[in-house]
Amino acid sequence: MKFFIDTANLAQIKEAQDLGVLDGVTTNPSLMAKEGIKGQQNILKHYLDICNIVTGDVSAEVVATNYDGMISEGEILATLHPQIVVKIPMIKDGIKAIKYFTEKGIKTNCTLVFSSGQALLAAKAGATYMSPFIGRLDDVCTDGLKLIEDIRIIYDNYGYETEILAASVRHPMHIIECAKIGADVATCPLSVILALLKHPLTDSGLAQFLADAKK
Ligand code: E4P
Question: For the chain, which terminal residue's Cβ has fewer other Cβ atoms within 10 angstroms, N or C?
Answer without folding.
Answer: C
